[in-house]
Design goal:
The structure is a homodimer.
Chain A: H1 9-27, H2 32-39, H3 43-55, E1 59-64, E2 75-79, E3 84-92, E4 95-102, E5 107-114, H4 122-142, E6 146-154, E7 157-159, E8 162-166, E9 171-174, H5 176-186, E10 194-198, H6 199-210, E11 217-222, E12 228-233, E13 236-237, H7 269-272, H8 274-280, H9 284-289, H10 297-303, H11 307-331, E14 335-338, H12 347-360, E15 367-370, H13 377-392, H14 394-398
Parallel strand pairs in A: 3-6, 6-10, 11-14, 14-15
Antiparallel strand pairs in A: 1-2, 3-4, 4-5, 7-8, 8-9, 11-12, 12-13
Helix pairs in contact in A: 1-2, 1-3, 2-3, 4-5, 6-13, 10-11, 11-12
The structure holds a DNA duplex (30 and 30 nucleotides).
Pfam family, one (chains A, B): ROK
Organism (chains A, B): Prauserella cavernicola
Protein name (chains A, B): ROK family protein
Amino acid sequence: MERDAPVRPVQQHRHNLALVARLAARLGPVSRARLAHESGLTKSTVTQLTGELLDGGLLREIGTGRSGGPGRPANQLVLNSLGPAGIGLQIEADHVAGCLLDLTGRVRDRALRKADDLTGDPQRAVKAAEPVLRRLLNTANSTDNVVVGVAVGLPARVRDATVVHADGLGWADTNFPWLLGDRLSALGAGGIPVTVANSHQLAARAEHWFGGDEAEVLVHVGGEDGLGAGIVIAGEVHAGARGAAGELGHVRIPGADDPCTCGQRGCLDTVAGRRALLRAAGLDEVVRSRLTGGDGELPALVGSGEAVAVAAVRRAATALGTVLGGLVPALDPDVLVLGGHLPALGSDFLDAVDLSLRQRCPGAAVRVRASRLPADVVARAAATTVTSALIEAPADWLAE
Amino acid sequence: MERDAPVRPVQQHRHNLALVARLAARLGPVSRARLAHESGLTKSTVTQLTGELLDGGLLREIGTGRSGGPGRPANQLVLNSLGPAGIGLQIEADHVAGCLLDLTGRVRDRALRKADDLTGDPQRAVKAAEPVLRRLLNTANSTDNVVVGVAVGLPARVRDATVVHADGLGWADTNFPWLLGDRLSALGAGGIPVTVANSHQLAARAEHWFGGDEAEVLVHVGGEDGLGAGIVIAGEVHAGARGAAGELGHVRIPGADDPCTCGQRGCLDTVAGRRALLRAAGLDEVVRSRLTGGDGELPALVGSGEAVAVAAVRRAATALGTVLGGLVPALDPDVLVLGGHLPALGSDFLDAVDLSLRQRCPGAAVRVRASRLPADVVARAAATTVTSALIEAPADWLAE
DNA sequence: TTCAATAGTCCAGTAGACGAACTAATTGCC
DNA sequence: GGCAATTAGTTCGTCTACTGGACTATTGAA
């Protein structure tokens, strides 16, 4: 409910619609009676509201389910897996991943497009996204899903739906939603709203939604090339005053002096970034070949005790732990999740980060753990922003 | 509006009441017509709502004011400076400060009680607060103000209205509101609700409210003895998962090794804390005499180029800047305010902190400035939490 | 078969915002 | 002075959407 807007009966209705939709999403198959009980609304109102949600295709009635005692059995309601759905894209310098998500949160389809180099002209990314979108739109068509939104996760600073600055992609002030919307029209899917979001922030959202921590404050650190953090506070991403919150990659590390893409020297990215780390461990050719699978070689080297690799990883862990150790006392998070390319570095790396972090701030009560989510979390989280927006504001959808 | 609660006409009314009260507070003397325009409510509704606020003593009608053109002149409404008011206390190891604030935000009275040592038994603080409270209650009585709440700012971690841990005071798991409420009853002011809050967080609130920055994200760093930060995001304090957000005093500084009260060595407090700094500058006797005014001697020494003092202050600035430089890229604040004893260290100190911060994170767009607020901001901010709670939820007050 | 229990619908009642019509008070023009 | 224009504020009937109790529906158990 907007704080500075008047509340009329309509807003009241909107709020209660959202409340019921949210509860239906949370409780899975659920009866109107239970919804009434959990929401605090009366049965009559819930009948009315669920009726609207059913008509709008957000809910579906599955026959009377259990019969665990006397009394009329309930007509169970669930989110409609056939109705509205969302597409999420993840764009990185070397690939575009995408997925189609229905309202229940199930991934209906995935798609991946590898590419040589998507940096420079944003149209390259649009072009690489096209086959991914085409496939997902086709799938949606065949599964009776209606795509109501496309959300894109990018390693970029985003402000007012515009990419203000993307280090790793070389973009600046790009209205990417507009570019992609154009391509969507060409695919016969014009008018679908496109949103963009920072991929670190989406990854943090993903950990909050799917990580199972029930955290009040969660910090996710990771990234494909550049390192970055996403901060979730009370279920909301903290984007910062300019959308730049979590940009840790260019914090200077004492003792480091390698040149960074940003023009400075000794940035965290030059010590703990994926490419920098592979290079420092003597895996230059892996970097050049751009093989994501090559990440596996580094933990293998470390496991076999290869001195250069061990030193590089230890150095990265110490630097990262120190930076995070400055963050933790400021934010007091429940959980600090290491994601992106970091979990692949092995549990020794995780332990070393933890150690270094606690050396910086001894009393910290934070739990540090590796992410357990798959590589395409960002695409999934992006798609989830579409579906959860529907559930959080069903009235907007019903109005159409 | 509670997210998980149903909205009925009553909640609708509560919301709109708060909306009108907030606007009246923001716009100063304001007509019903303007309130209707600004709020988006109709004139009829505003008449109804302001009527309730007038009856409840939250608003007051001052005669028809301006007559800048044709048309019936407006009956101006203002917050009632005579009705409900709040008391704010600030408790530190060596003093208790307090103030009485009316709804308009005007300080009706102040009181200060110096004390030798309030650490150890919380009852000492209660005892020192008694004369302060007595005076402020008397003042309220004579100015026709009704004290509706007492809010206390403490250098302590607070959780569920309980002091979980107070480093500088030596308290743990203390239900301070209960203790102080007891004393209030003895003063004939029983039943007044008492709340507690962390003083760093209150200081940040104060900068956000009174600092004039219009910041979306604001960080305040300061403290009397221990250093700490308060973070305000979108008008709300970020307290962290355990209420420990902003506890920067015990971040370890590379190269520092002095023992800290926390049992560790090399904490930020041992480098940039007030006492540590005075000691390092050779002003031991000032520390022992507990003279707050003694702070003036340090900038004087620095100004005169006294080598030890200059070195101590520079070291403190570097350490603090480095710690803050780790924070800024994570949070992306608009403004970083240095408060507490820090502004007294002079503008060279401020510049040195700024320099060190930007050395750590070169691209930061944050504005760094010294606090311009007086020493008793925390008491004022505490009192403001009482009065602003009234304005944010007038229905609760009107119900009584 | 009947009763208890639970699910769900129906409908009159009600709180509270809206809007049009009204009254009120002032300026400015004749 | 009188009257139109203009803005402030109130009154009252209307409308929306939630409530609560009466009602129907469907099951298990006695």
